[in-house]
Design a protein that fits this description.
globular; alpha/beta; single chain; 3-stranded antiparallel beta sheet; 10 strands; 5-stranded parallel beta sheet
């Protein structure tokens, strides 16, 4: 009998579905308190969610959005600012996305007359917004963004909505922009000085380094933003995620298989999704055992390596000595009892003289690329990979290179 699979419940490269969201209880409650304060006092709140890439910031934002839309009757608006660097474009994107969200509602007709002056086009599938605004009008919207938002809020409140949650994602192009930092501070200060009642919460999603850049550009921003750091998920939360997700499609998980999934995913949501998806497609009987997990881990390591290591590490390490060290590292790691961790001296003794001369620079490159990090608790000169799949992929690459040499 052939086991027929449903669609995969995992979503590599995308925010996790709300029904499979786990953990982050403390952070969700903290964000909820700030949003409640914004609604209760009708005042602007600014929250900065920060953490490593792939840690689940967008998934957290999506989960919070679903809660406030249902529980608080707010309008959540998720905006990707990838590539945006000009303040005019940022303001325009925010207003367009708000209007598009309003256009999806069944009460849009009741406020259409007010928003009609902004909307240039109404598409067949709903409101597709093109702002009917010239350069002068855009400059006015930038300089008086608090007034623009206040006008929008007054209309959505007439329709029974309580406020706005505005999520700014992919802000990399803005964190090094002094104009953006100054503009947001001016906008926030203007709301306070003018006494504008604005039940709006802004939530910016950034990495730790992006947060540091913003702080360096405009230190006063850290007074305005409520910072919330996102860490790796705990083992129990990882178990909960895998069990909940596999059970949703009728698949069973053995205890040994579950322990292996927890070990290799290291509490990093982006890796959990990759591992889960690989295992899902490789399994043949609807029961996830240790063998299924190990096969899935190798497949996921190949995916992750091609996505995150090949475009960065293998292109950045153009020196043949660097490449040779990486291959030797891969071959040594697989023999270690804990492949995700290594001692500098253990690797160094396997290198030739030219490789030894550049080994320190090699390690610094890997640290800068966020592939490894120091592990001072394990002793001096000890490093670990930021996730368990990287050493597996590096080992696989070393094996592939060895086979190519043999064929030659």
């Amino acid at each position: 009998m052939v086991y027929e699979k449903p669609d995969s419940p995992f979503s590599p490269g995308r925010p996790v579905s709300v029904e499979f969201f786990v953990g982050r209880k403390k952070q969700v409650e903290e964000i909820g308190n700030y949003i409640s304060s914004s609604l209760g006092k009708r005042q602007l709140e600014s929250v900065l969610i920060y953490g490593d890439r792939g840690i689940g910031k967008s998934s957290l934002a999506s989960y919070v959005s679903a809660i406030v839309e249902r529980k608080d009757n707010m309008i959540p608006v998720h905006i990707s600012l990838a590539g945006s660097s000009k303040i005019g474009d940022v303001v325009k994107d925010i207003v367009v996305r708000i209007l598009e969200e309003i256009g999806k509602s069944n009460w849009f007709d009741s406020v259409k007359d007010f928003f009609g002056k902004y909307i240039k086009k109404i598409g067949f599938w709903g409101v597709q917004v093109e702002l009917n605004i010239d350069k002068k009008g855009l400059r006015s919207s930038v300089n008086n963004f608090d007034i623009t938002l206040s006008n929008i809020v007054s209309q959505i409140e007439k329709a029974g909505k309580t406020g706005l949650l505005i999520i700014l994602d992919d802000i990399n192009g803005l964190t090094g922009n002094r104009q953006f930092a100054d503009w947001y501070k001016g906008f926030s200060d203007g709301v306070a000085v003018r006494g504008i009642k604005l039940p709006v919460t802004f939530m910016l999603l950034s990495t730790s380094s992006q947060r540091e850049r913003l702080c360096a550009l405009q230190p006063s921003l850290m007074r305005i933003f409520r910072p919330i750091k996102i860490e790796h998920l705990a083992n129990d939360e990882v178990k909960d995620f895998f069990l909940k997700t596999f059970h949703s499609v009728g698949m069973k998980v053995s205890n040994n298989g579950l322990e292996q999934m927890v070990k290799y995913s290291t509490g990093l949501p982006i890796i959990m999704q990759e591992i889960g998806d690989s295992i899902f497609w490789l399994d043949e009987d609807g029961v996830i055992d240790e063998r299924d997990v190990l096969m899935g881990v190798f497949d996921a390591a190949d995916r992750v390596g091609n996505k995150y290591l090949s475009p960065t590490v293998y292109r950045a390490l153009r020196s043949e000595n660097y490449r040779s060290i990486l291959r030797k590292l891969g071959n040594i790691l697989i023999e270690l009892p804990e492949p995700s961790q290594f001692k500098k001296s253990s690797i160094e003794k396997e290198l030739n003289e030219p490789e030894k001369k550049v080994f320190n620079n090699f390690l610094q490159r890997l640290k800068k690329l966020k592939i490894i990090e120091s592990e001072p608790e394990a002793g001096r000169g000890v490093y670990k990979f930021v996730n368990e799949l990287f050493p597996i992929y590096i080992w696989m690459e070393a094996q592939t290179h060895g086979k190519k040499l043999k064929r030659v």
